[in-house]
Amino acid sequence: MPIAAAVREALASSSMIRKMFEEGAELKKKYGPDQVFDFSIGNPDLEPPPAFHRVFVRLAEEDAKGSHGYMPNAGYAGVREALARKASREQGCTVPPSHVVMAAGAAGALNVALKSILNPGDEVVVPRPYFMEYRSYAANHGGVLVEAASKADFSLDLETIEQALSPKTAAVLINSPHNPTGRVYSGADIAALADLLRRYGAKTGRCPYLVADEPYREIVYDGVMVPPVLSAYEESIVVTSYSKSLSLPGERIGYIAAGPGISDRDDTLAALVYATRVLGFVNAPALMQRIVAELTEERVAVEVYAARRQAFKEVLDAAGIGYVEPEGAFYLFAKVPETGREEAGDRAFSGCLKARRILGVPGSSFGAPGWIRFAYCVDEGVIRASAAAFREAAAEWAAG
């Protein structure tokens, strides 16, 4: 029997990030790890904070009866209370514990949220560029992703978002700090977006949800603050995880926080819990729930990422490659140098870099042709060691 047509189509255009990561593994086998400069995947290499290991060991040794069994699908009551306090501090409003649902990472949380709000054919508007898996997440639940171009500096363009809204719009999905650009949307932009969605809802009778994907919220630089979403707009849902802030991507732990003023509150919260169960997550990992509840004030050493950001900027500056200044996350979104050649796109430039054993992800994978994403969640020594390879690749590219 053939596999599902939709899956077959998705496989044909499967994640370029994973493809580059796998190519990097092969290159490392061939040339040695120190001869390959792999900036393809956002897999944090920093260890979790020391407090994580202390709490992990203590809870594992306690191993209380029933501590690895099922709990309510939304998560342990005490954990939800702790994370509701954290969400309240970050979001500038009081988030009740009942509005927090524990999730299997931000990806699991997004799928739960989208299943809860989408009807077949509904649309999810997303600023471009965007994390490539969003399209699949929407399609998983019968939704359609609708792209809205961002401004030249990759901040929100309210005009293009307004043009993308339609009677089928169920939600606008934003990601800040942003993957792949590192942009942090301003408080003014969030407020303007909220006002736009309110006006659109008043005019059409359907007020779109604002879904904010925030796994990088705690990785920001130069005093930049990530503005709250839940206090800015009533129909808002935040999804997040500890994959980046505590360097726990493989543990798949995160949560959903629904705004305190969300309409149809009881049905919405019940839908989030129901979707958690029937999507097969059932509940977020029990041990990880209890651990993160004790680490609400902890985060990885962001200053290490800041130093790597500076090192990478120096490498690209020396090679004459332009980029967006990242305000958060751990990506540099670099502009493909102009050559005047028609075929000189981001995939071709990626190939030129790969010939020098530099791996980055073409921007067309994020809906932004002409750019390339480099993840700097790697050792600073790798970044600095890549300088000569970048200069050589840039010179070769310029020469055609």
Key terms:
Aspartate Aminotransferase, domain 2; globular; Aspartate Aminotransferase, domain 1; 7-stranded mixed beta sheet; 12 strands; 14% strand; alpha/beta; 3-stranded antiparallel beta sheet; 2 domains; 400 residues; 14 helices
Write up what this structure looks like.
The protein has helices at 5-12, 16-31, 50-62, 77-91, 105-117, 133-140, 158-164, 187-204, 265-278, 286-293, 302-319, 346-355, 380-385, 387-399; strands at 37-38, 100-103, 123-128, 144-149, 169-175, 209-213, 236-241, 254-258, 331-335, 358-359, 361-362, 371-375. With 400 residues, it is of the alpha/beta class. It has two domains: 5-48 and 301-399, Aspartate Aminotransferase, domain 1; 69-293, Aspartate Aminotransferase, domain 2 (3-Layer(aba) Sandwich). The chain has a seven-stranded mixed beta sheet with strand order 2-8-7-6-5-3-4, sandwiched between helices. The mean pLDDT is 94.
Summarize this structure briefly:
42% of the residues lie in helices and 14% in strands. The chain is built from 14 helices and 12 strands.
Write the layout of secondary structure elements.
Blueprint: H1 5-12, H2 16-31, E1 37-38, H3 50-62, H4 77-91, E2 100-103, H5 105-117, E3 123-128, H6 133-140, E4 144-149, H7 158-164, E5 169-175, H8 187-204, E6 209-213, E7 236-241, E8 254-258, H9 265-278, H10 286-293, H11 302-319, E9 331-335, H12 346-355, E10 358-359, E11 361-362, E12 371-375, H13 380-385, H14 387-399
Parallel strand pairs: 1-10, 3-4, 3-5, 5-6, 6-7
Antiparallel strand pairs: 2-8, 7-8, 9-12, 11-12
Helix pairs in contact: 3-10, 4-10, 5-9, 11-14, 12-14
